[in-house]
Specification:
With 462 residues, the protein is an all-beta fold. Helix content is 3%, strand content 43%. The protein has a 6-stranded mixed sheet with strand order 26-28-29-30-35-36, with no helix packed on it. The protein has a 5-stranded antiparallel sheet with strand order 22-23-24-25-37. Strands 1-33-32-31 form a 4-stranded antiparallel sheet, with no helix packed on it. The chain is globular and about 70 Å long.
Length: 462
Amino acid sequence: MRGGTIQINWHETKPILTLDFHPQSGLLATAGADFDIKIWLISPCEAQKKAPTATYQNSLSYHGSAVNVVRFSPSGEQLASGADGGELIIWKLHSTEAGQAWKVLKSLSFHRKDVLDLQWSTDGAYLVSASVDNSCIIWDVNKGSVHQILDGHLHYVQGVSWDPLGHYIASLSADRTCRIYVNKAQIKKGLEVMNYICQHVINKAECQQLDDSKGSSTKAHLFHDETLPSFFRRLAWSPDGSFLVAPAGSYKFLPTSDSVNSAYLFSRKDLSSILDSDSLLICRPALQLPAANKSVVAVRFCPIVFSLRGSNSAGLFKLPYRFVFAVATLNSLYIYDTESSSPIAVFAGLHYAAVTDIAWSSNAKYLALSSQDGYCTLIEFESNELGSLIHVPDAKKEMDGVSTTVMIEKPDKPVEAANPAVVIIDDRSKDAERKQPSPTSIISTSASNKPAKRRITPMAID
């Protein structure tokens, strides 16, 4: 594992708000406050312990305002970009005499204000977008029209994620709620048409009591309010749809305790339960992943499925395979896998300004991080460093043979997590007044030789 902040002119020193890897070619798309989308070729650095390199390829110029989110379609043939002012553009890859070029295919118009997040459906036929106008919109990409408007939120919608199995859509808003929409298909003109309705509104949970008294319980908000210093709350489903991880958490262990910045994990089994109307407001996360002193703003899963290592029996996830996912706070990055009860790596102090987005390459070789300071961090993994890959046919066979619900073991007391395997720190806080970052200094410390300064303790919530 090696990497660092790449010192190149990414977007004329303007904030970089989003990035995504192409699923086939591995090219990286970045976008931000300079209104352009730029395409980069990422290559490993031949020098030992040096970060990968990014080589500029071309720019996609059409937007007239800051671009907040870019996402390639599953096939890689199209690219969706959402920007301020409600702009939402579909780009299509064309073959030309000079090679391949991205051209504007459609402009999707309906959002009245900034588009902050979006995601494609698994088949690439639909797109769901989240906006400052308090709504999510499901788009029929082929028709270029609105399929359905989800307008339940009362504040900015800053994150949206489509269940890979197509049954749920999850959205996260500055109104301190996470809404789970379920597909209740309708029959129109003899055809089945998808129709999403809100099944859960997750906003509060009961705090633990100091004693065993059965008096009135205290409920606390699970998520930060609109004062969260970020445009984004990018949540994500696991690749098999077995659980959802939501950022922007603010968890209270006790009614009188301070809030802890967190990401929450929700089991599909819990979301699929038939609940009465009173239960909608108290649907609780199964697991809480505490961060350090900054809010969690984004979650992204590695698209590769890994085989179990069988070396850790203390894991809280009971799956026949292993996922790896990244959790980004405003100033740090945690990498987890589903076989461990603690992060496998922590990166801190890589940027002067807030982190905005995360992206994995389709082969799990690279993990990219964007920031408002105008730079990106690239992390490169060695072959099999994250584990042994399960090839697609094998993965599908294993997934088909098990339930799509994750089993989470809830211990009798909080799990005392081991130190992360790798801690990589580049402390820029002491030098934050400089206008340009210096080349990244990375210190890698094995947990067995030197303990981490702060323990990260996942909590199973009863």
